[in-house]
Specification:
With 114 residues, the protein is an all-beta fold. The protein has no helices and eleven strands. Strands 2, 4, 5, 6, 9, 10 and 11 form a seven-stranded mixed beta sheet that branches. A four-stranded antiparallel beta sheet has the order 1-3-8-7, with no helix packed on it. β9 (87-95) and β10 (103-104) form a beta hairpin.
Length: 114
Amino acid sequence: QVQLAESGGGLVQAGGSLRLSCAASGRSFSSLNMGWFRQAPGKEREFVASIGRNIVYVPSVKGRFTISRDDNIVYLQMNNLKPEDTAVYFCASRPIGAFKYDVWGQGTQVTVSS
């Protein structure tokens, strides 16, 4: 069973940067698609980026965020942060070829002040 643990959230001023990490255990990364999602207060959880056979970004973060992975850690480098990026960020995994993300981390808070 895969287990995920995020870290790296915090408070940053607009225009600043943060790097989130998601450490996975229990299964080889090579068989998993890894995704980052976020949920702002009062809003639904939304997809941010994923890495598997391809790398995909939601348009609102393209050019500012970079997803990467190294061994069993997935990173989300976030540059030029905006107040609207404020949310709890979650990493999730799904087997490559599957449709649904079925394992989720506990989330890490990112707050961007204006």
